[in-house]
Design a protein that fits this description.
Length: about 150
């Protein structure tokens, strides 16, 4: 896992830089610089608007007594999208815009939840019998563990 992350953090900036140089060679340096600035500004503005809508929906869900699990995932994706959009680069901007568009964000959220259901198991422990509310808690409230798929 560490190797994959390290590869990602090295490969993505190198590919982004090569792509920006290629675009600059065809469009010009100032135009490429302007493109990076405009996508960052527009992306931050869109991320803020989508984030506010999501926050309002989370507040409505909580006021109605519903757990806003899906909307929390949507909010996290919007946060990631905003970070990607303010990062200079064409590929990160494309992924960030994809996460900001509600239709594609919902599709990515469904895929993410399906992946989590396949790979993560959540177990919860209950307080020991007879434990009072003033007893210090020395038990695990919940634990997440990765489950490896068995080969069929």
């Amino acid at each position: 896992m560490l190797f994959r992350l390290l590869t990602l953090f090295i490969a993505v900036p190198l590919v982004e830089l090569a792509l920006l140089f290629w675009i600059a060679r065809h469009l010009g340096g100032w135009e490429t610089f302007s493109l990076v600035l405009v996508t960052g500004f527009v992306g931050a503005t869109l991320a803020r608007a989508e984030g506010l809508k999501t926050m309002q929906q989370i507040q409505r869900d909580m006021a109605e007594g519903r757990m806003p699990g899906d909307m929390l995932l949507q909010g996290a994706m919007i946060l990631v999208a905003g970070a990607l959009l303010v990062t200079p680069g064409v590929i990160t901007d494309a992924v960030g815009l994809m996460l900001l568009v509600p239709m594609t964000r919902h599709a990515v959220a469904r895929w993410s939840m399906a992946w989590l259901r396949r790979h993560v198991t959540v177990t919860a422990a209950t307080p020991p019998p007879g434990a009072s509310s003033d007893t210090p808690r020395r038990y695990v409230a919940s634990r997440v563990s990765r489950v490896e798929r068995e080969e069929e």
